[in-house]
Each structure stands twice: as structure tokens, then as C-alpha cells.
Amino acid sequence: MKNKKSKIAMLLILALSFMSYTTLSKKTIKVKESTVVWKGYKVGGEHTGTINLKSGALVFDDKTLTGGTFTIDMTSINTTDLKGDYKGKLDGHLKSDDFFGVEEFPTATLEITSASANGKEYNVKANITIKGITEAIEFPMTVTENSAKASLKIDRTKHKITYKSPSLLETLKDKAIYDEFDLDVTLKF
């Protein structure tokens, strides 16, 4: 009996010595203090605005970024470079089925699938879902103690947003809206 207990204890110690312990932590994003600024481009100009995060968190193994998930409130699309009727028309059009169809798709999501570190900067791989369609993307992210910054380029046509796309409408080149738009993100946690 004593010999059996000794063997079990030794096996337990051996098993524990081979296990790697990680210190995973989740940092919840302060959505009211964080910002997402969008910029869309058209022939002869551009428009900028904001969009709100509903929720988000970054996952760290010790101090190394390993993952994260975010929900974006698509109903909060807001144009900041226009005023009055022009602003209202553009906001409404961006929320319509021509663009983000926020009535049917009120949220978009982003899930970080991997992050490789180079100092405080990471090359992030993620899946972004807009209008129910998921696309794999990559972007740089800088992480400090209480914040993170990222710049993303999104190809709207990968999410079946093709309104006045120059890649699809050769005859409308002078009125085209470029396929890619930018998101500049500042996260506070």
C-alpha cells in the first residue's frame, strides 16, 4: 500500500513538472474612453467619422497579447466631416442596405486569432465579420500598459458592400467609392 501511494505521488509530481502554467488575463476595454475613427475614400475626396464599440477585451499571456474579441455597434455610424442635411443623408446611406444594412446587421465583430510580438508592436491576425460575412485580415497593433492602437484597412467588397465600387462598375469611375476604408482604433483598458 505504501509503495502504491509513493508511485502515485511520484507520477503526480512528474506530471506537474511537465505541465506549463500560463497566466492568462483578460483586459476589458473601456468602450466610452476608446475610439474608432473611419475614413472612406471616393474619387475627388473622402469622408471621416466615428463608430462605437459595444464591448471588447484583449487577452494576454503574462504581458504578451494572444487574443481578443470586439463587438462594434454599427447603428452608431457617425459622419464627422459634414453638417446638416449632408451629414444626415450620408449617415442614413451608410446605415442602409447599400452599405452596412444596420437594421438587419446591427453589430459587426472582430476576433483576434493570433498576435506575434516585435517589442510593443504586434502583427495581428483576426477575423472580422461585417453583414454576416467573415474575412481574415492582418494589421499592426501597438500595446502599452493601459492602451492599444491599431490601423486597419477593410475591403468592403469582401462583405458584399459593392455600391459604386470601381472594381465592379467600370463606367462610373468618376463617381466611384473606393473599395477599401480605414479604421484607426484607440483602445483604453
Automatic annotation (TrEMBL):
It comes from the Bacteria. It holds the Pfam family YceI. Residues 26-188 form the Lipid/polyisoprenoid-binding YceI-like domain. Residues 1-22 form the signal peptide. Keywords: Signal. This is YceI family protein. It comes from Winogradskyella echinorum.
